[in-house]
Amino acid sequence: MSGRRVLDALRSYPRRSPVTFGYVCLLLLTHAWVLYGLTAERADELLRQVSTNLDNLADHPVSAVLGSALFFDGTLTDVTSLYFPATVITLGLGVCCALAWAERRWGPLRAFGVFLAGHLGATLLTATVITVALRQGWYADDVRRALDYGISYGAQTMMAAATLALPRLARLPWALFVVAWPFGGAEWAGPLPDFTTVGHVLAAVLGLLLVLPPVARRLDRRPAPAPEGRDPGPRPHGRYGAR
């Protein structure tokens, strides 16, 4: 892609994906607020409140799950940190690219519905895995209070779903990348990697389920093109038709 086309795509981004653009701006604002607007103690207290660990899910599940989706866990400035590539993948590829693509293809309600479903679904499935792992002695008990917040599960789901946007030959390598990249920094406890790796893999699986043809057809808001030379007739109204 030429530099001119990149600039044109950036200029048109707010118009073509306005809700995603607004969400990215919100994430940047909350990130700056935590870093520069709060003391270290207040920031730590806030992030622990929105952490989706077992204790918080038992005490205040709704505010923890929704609050967690308002922050990203990473860095935009420390390019030498191991957290920087993860930020590029989750915020850059997962939200800025994949979520924006889904908004254009499915509409904002369906796109963000899928994002939140991945965020919530992976969180709850990971909590189940943690519960089982604690009973088996694979995880230390302090995992119940671990700091675990951010957009990465929803972003991972969208990255997997965006497999549909790629040429057929690129889909399998991309899907393998989405599933495999979380293992790059995995720490193993018995037969399981750390719970965040588990969560990212589960989120990827949820996203790949959306690639299945029956699910993809239901999500797609665009009507099928009429055969050439034929009048498509009036567009239907209803759940999957025009409104």
UniProtKB/TrEMBL annotation:
Residues 221-234 have a biased composition (Basic and acidic residues). Residues 221-243 are annotated as: Disordered. Keywords: Membrane, Transmembrane, Transmembrane helix. It comes from the Bacteria. The chain crosses the membrane at residues 21-39, 82-102, 114-134, 195-212. Pfam families: Rhomboid_2. This is Integral membrane protein. It comes from Streptomyces lichenis.
